Amino acid sequence: EMRRRSDTHGREIQRTRLRLGGGDHVLERLVTLAGRRHDHQRLLPKLLDELAPGSRIVSHKFHMGDAWKPVRSVRAGDATLYLWIVPAKVDGTWKMGQGQLALKQEFQMVTGTLTTNGKPVTISNGRLRGDQIMFAAGGTTYTGRVNGNTIQGTNGTAWNALNVVIVLFLL
Fold this sequence. Notes:
mainly beta; 15 strands; elongated
């Protein structure tokens, strides 16, 4: 399935989904960007809002500004190619068992605190790669998958987190 749309400046944004055997499995989502540096920076909010976590963005020559660092850059002859992977949105407060996870997100980097039994512990090494989240707190490494307003993961045992905004809405 391929969809094309134009942004407000008339350039095409292309989304491609490859499906296996008519199933619902998305193999790859890729957006390629060409143009001037300020075009990339102006498109950034639109790309982050509209592309699914895990979508790849590849740019020739220009990056997305200083804030969003590429996952990889490759020099090919006279050109430099940059790769970014759209991160899931995790910024906010999450209810986690008997505790609370307060996350602050800047693109794929995550900081915050994990509070259990009233004791806050600072998160370290927090990062996202698409819908995959990883962080360490109190000597334990947590890994999980973000699915909208829930996170399901492991740290030796299974754990779940629910976005507090949703919890308040359900009450």
